[in-house]
Amino acid sequence: MNIKNIYNSVVVILLSFLNFEVAFAADETISNSNTAWILTSTALVLFMTLPGLAFFYGGLVRSKNVLSVLMQCFSLACLVSIMWVAFLYSLAFGDGGSLNSYIGGLDNSFLAGLSLGSMSGDIPETVFIMFQLTFAIITPALIVGGFAERMKFSSMFVFSFVWMILVYAPICHMVWGGGFLGEMGLMDFAGGTVVHINAGVAALVLAVYLGNRTGFQSVPMPPHNLSMTVAGASMLWVGWFGFNAGSALAADQSAGMAMLVTHIGAASGSLAWMFREWSKSGKPSVLGIVTGMVAGLGTITPASGFVGPIGALVIGILAGLICYEATQYIKNKIRIDDSLDVFPVHGVGGILGTLLTAVFASSQYGGLGLENSISEQFMIQLFGVVFTIIWCTLFTLVAIKVAEMFTGNLRVTSEDEETGVDISSHGESSYN
């Protein structure tokens, strides 16, 4: 073998080794542990809607309307999934150019440019897309509770389509997708503004716009199946670990703390609501303790990646007490028929949690620390809350008007309401 052949052989061997190293390095950019955790979290968050929220809401309505609620949750999961692939993901997390402060662009419509090797941090972008999709699914599903038992299915469908474009995608982008709220320092770890304030405000606007159910506060409207509600609430509690701890986007200390404080918030919110109701009515109700749990979870959500156990305990207790009073005020004082208490539980909880993040994220109160002073961060949080409320209110009204253009009156007829939405809208009954 001459020197030239030896040289060529050495070069081939070195190049082969280099190629191996490059390939190995590429594989190393993926964290298998983080990917596995976010895959698990994604399944948990979808489990929150199907079947968790569907069962939770389904048990709370009257038996003649249970299928309508299940249908709305199920159909919204399908609708939002297709919208997410088509353009919502691009609007929420894409580059919006000159409008990037408020909304993403359409360059990633139908997931253009996505490949098996596409990455979001150290997890596959496919996993990130799917994880964020589950948040988008549950948000309009939460709104269902505000108009339960009286909105036409066609109107709900059109409204939700428009609302996701005008409200969810922009707020999501502004907070998490590179928009101005996130850039100014708004702290929303897992969806206090994006999910809970948005859903709560939209539900309240719809409840007021549609008007109260026939017989509200004059005819008893008890939950038809509290066992179903408790089962759904239990699923929500478990699924919420994916919601909050998954938002760390890593299997690390942050995820561990988020899981711990989420559990503490749920437990303390449950007991605070139970004892407050017990002291007022003389009996602790099953409905009360599970509603308090949801209030605690919704309130700890924006703070879950920033606060410690003591902060979570205080936040949970305040959530149970304040959300209980908000529920009583809305139903009994101003007499708004938010059918399943979406605004007082999720809206008020989201507002409270977002504001309290500025306090309990501080290291002096056991939090993980603030870049600003408590007062400075509180003003940023307050601005984010007010902005989200105004944006959501305005564009929820726009979505309502668009839905009316296509479907006419949003509300079912009085005859259909009396018969029940299951039969009138779907021609089926849950119980035969």
Give structural notes.
This protein has 432 residues and is mainly alpha-helical. It has two domains: 1-30; 34-426, Orthogonal Bundle (Ammonium transporter fold). Helices cover 71% and strands 1% of the residues. The protein contains 15 helices and two strands. Strands 1-2 form a two-stranded antiparallel ribbon. α5 (153-176) runs antiparallel to α7 (192-210). The chain starts with a helix and ends in a 6-residue tail after the last helix. The relative contact order is 0.14.
Concise summary:
The chain has about 425 residues and is mainly α.
Q: What labels would you give this structure?
A:
two-stranded antiparallel ribbon; mainly alpha; 2 strands
SSE topology:
Blueprint lengths: L2 H26 L3 H29 L5 H28 L25 E2 L2 E2 H23 L5 H24 L3 H4 L8 H19 L15 H20 L7 H29 L4 H15 L8 H25 L8 H19 L13 H34 L6 H6 L1 H6 L6
Antiparallel strand pairs: 1-2
Helix pairs in contact: 2-3, 2-4, 2-8, 3-4, 3-5, 4-5, 4-7, 5-7, 5-13, 7-12, 7-13, 8-9, 8-10, 9-10, 9-11, 10-11, 10-12, 11-12, 12-13
